[in-house]
């Protein structure tokens, strides 16, 4: 028993969620009670509820009645913004959408816009607490909840910050709900701390913006820190309800292995180094954008193949032409699209041959390599003349899908090379029956 207690003491406590979801896409109540609606010099005392709603789009909605002050019933419902204040603190800007008359009075509904923050975000804090929806499962470092120990922590850090991401206690139950119903549900609780000193709102916002792009690339679909809370001396100082876009749940491929997280810490640190150059970071995040849209099948396989070409063209110009200067000036514009991909693969030390696992693609390739067949299929999709339409019609759905997978693999390997990744990755193009091959990068 003493040995068990000693081992438990060495395991860190898991992050405790400050906002929870029990079913997919459930409405989250932010506030119930009285607040002030202010418009220039006019103030109205109101009472109602403020809720966060996932669907049809992310919205912070306000349903309320006016207790004291002039009615809004005769005022035009337009985009005019009114301040919503709780305890004299500005929460956000309200845009009225509609009103409903009943025997009990008039109820108004609107949405909050702008920076939606409750509390004084100018106050520096010790730590930032947040929740993350729809992030895939990782078998991470050990954490405990009471006497329950599980492997559920990812630690990301650089020279300034430490981020811990902990799976919620009932992760498997909640994830199965997502698989059944889709939508959104919180699966991880996160904490951001600074190695020296306290955190201010702006630096936290910048770091969590980077985390959005990083986790989206790791996840294969967009996710983000949400319901962000600043805490000082264990007291809640402010809460922020803005969020980057998060994709509704859909089973997608991810290059990151479920059971190996050892390379993620260095990958995160290198990701932040790229952020120091605005142009480089713009190229990186734009590439990730095209990659995610293609990976989740926006526009089906045909649309994904076109977006893959966009990403590969950007990566070629960024890495081959601008960063490494393998080709200079106008010469880069005279290279065929397939040769651009070959040069990109040469730079990252990867083969341009079609993997053996893509048998349907090999069948139609007729001796062509990966870059050439991808470009040929893309051109058949984009240039819709009679010959191209006939060629596209003759390509099987399986071959289209495998072309998409090969293009996505090229993007994954290029981005991992750019971020100097040293860990393992799951190769989407090398499968044997139901066994996925995990390779060292």
From TrEMBL:
Query: Which InterPro entries does this entry report, sorted A to Z?
Result: YopA_M
Residue ranges of domain YopA central in the record: 122-252
Q: Which domain of life is it from?
A: Bacteria
Q: What is this protein called?
A: YopA central domain-containing protein
């Amino acid at each position: 028993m003493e040995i068990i207690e000693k081992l438990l003491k060495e395991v860190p406590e898991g992050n405790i969620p400050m906002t929870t979801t029990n079913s997919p896409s459930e409405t989250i109540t932010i506030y119930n009670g009285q607040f002030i609606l202010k418009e220039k010099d006019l103030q109205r005392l109101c009472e109602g509820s403020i809720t966060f709603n996932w669907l049809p789009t992310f919205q912070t909605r306000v349903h309320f009645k006016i207790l004291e002050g002039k009615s809004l019933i005769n005022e035009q419902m337009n985009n005019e913004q009114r301040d919503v204040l709780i305890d004299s603190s500005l929460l956000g800007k309200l845009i009225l959408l509609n009103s409903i008359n009943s025997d009990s009075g008039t109820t108004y509904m609107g949405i909050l816009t702008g920076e939606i923050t409750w509390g004084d975000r100018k106050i520096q804090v010790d730590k930032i607490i947040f929740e993350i929806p729809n992030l895939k499962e990782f078998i991470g470092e050990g954490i405990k909840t009471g006497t329950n120990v599980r492997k559920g922590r990812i630690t990301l850090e650089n020279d300034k910050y430490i981020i811990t991401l902990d799976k919620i206690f009932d992760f498997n139950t909640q994830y199965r709900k997502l698989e059944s119903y889709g939508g959104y549900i919180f699966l991880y609780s996160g904490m951001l701390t600074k190695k020296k000193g306290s955190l201010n709102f702006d630096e936290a916002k910048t770091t969590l913006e980077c985390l959005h792009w990083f986790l989206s690339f790791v996840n294969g679909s967009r996710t983000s820190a949400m319901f962000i809370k600043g805490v000082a001396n264990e007291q809640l100082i402010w809460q922020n309800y803005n969020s980057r876009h998060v994709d509704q749940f859909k089973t997608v491929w991810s290059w990151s292995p479920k059971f190996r997280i050892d390379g993620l810490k260095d990958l995160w640190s290198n990701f932040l180094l790229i952020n120091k150059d605005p142009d480089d970071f713009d190229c990186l995040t734009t590439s990730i954008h095209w990659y995610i849209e293609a990976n989740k099948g926006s526009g089906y396989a045909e649309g994904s193949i076109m977006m893959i070409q966009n990403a590969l063209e950007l990566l070629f110009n960024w890495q081959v032409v601008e960063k490494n200067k393998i080709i200079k000036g106008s010469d880069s514009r005279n290279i065929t699209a397939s040769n651009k991909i070959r040069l990109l693969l040469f730079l990252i030390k990867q083969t341009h041959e079609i993997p053996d696992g893509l048998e349907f693609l090999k069948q139609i390739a007729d001796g062509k390599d990966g870059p050439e067949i991808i470009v040929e299929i893309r051109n058949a999709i984009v240039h819709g003349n009679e010959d191209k339409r006939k060629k596209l019609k003759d390509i099987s759905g399986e071959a289209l899908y495998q072309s998409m997978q090969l293009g996505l693999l090229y993007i994954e390997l290029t981005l991992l090379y750019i971020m100097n990744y040293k860990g393992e990755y799951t190769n989407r193009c090398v499968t044997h029956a139901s066994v996925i091959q995990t390779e060292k990068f």
